[in-house]
Specification:
By secondary structure, the chain is α+β, with helices and mostly antiparallel strands. Helix content is 58%, strand content 13%. The protein is built from 12 helices and 7 strands.
Length: 285
Amino acid sequence: MEQFFESLLDWKSDLAAWAIPSFHVTDVIDILVVAFIIYEILKGVRRTGAWILLRGILLLMAIAAISALLQLKMTLWIFQATISVGILAVIIIFQPELRRALEQLGRGSFLSSIMGQDDNKLEKQNVESIIDALEKMAAVKTGALICLQQKVPLTTYEETGIPLDAEISSQLIVNIFEKNTPLHDGAVIVRDNRIMAATCYLPLTENQSISKELGTRHRAALGLSEVTDSKILVVSEETGSISMAEGGRLYRDVDGPFLRKTLITPVDEKTKRKTLRDIFKKKER
């Protein structure tokens, strides 16, 4: 009898251990790491057309879960037969988004400090030269696209253009983008306070929700801002307005004061929104 009760107690302790598993600090870290990776991937996918595909995949996963609960054997067999091919297809379909998520991880502040990457901060006189050139080109509606490298190197895009390695000056920038000149088509890349290359090709954004009135220059500016931390300045050939792309966002109809605050010192989102509201108020007056 004593042996029976002892075995019963052992069984209850084993059942309790199975029902309430031990939870350690490493488990919390494991959950946080997985959640962070999923968040970064979703953030990269959210701005692209692949978001619709992801919703379709989530719907299929929900159908598979319901099929497992209801023991729908034929449906489960189809899912089991195609799951290996499906995983490979997902990797191929979401390759650009996965790459973008990895690039966002790689240019994080923590990793950048470890790898010793520094901001390519513009000197004040060069900021003034760039703003002066932008305002002159905006006045005569000369289209322009200027990329200001930050922590993420733009070497790949530099190689698509013509090397210059010239000092920054308002006159040179205006001459580069003058209509019907050999260097006017494409983007200028600025690095280490020098104009490194012109006529560079940039990746176009895959965001389908942006305004249809935006041309190739604005789409290229947004595209580069989605995959790097660069600040890209655009002058519209149609309206003569100046825009700035950064972090996958486009700030339209900006002026000199906004650009000085943004290019000389880091500006948070709250300050940018306030500056933009001030710009629109001036226009309404």
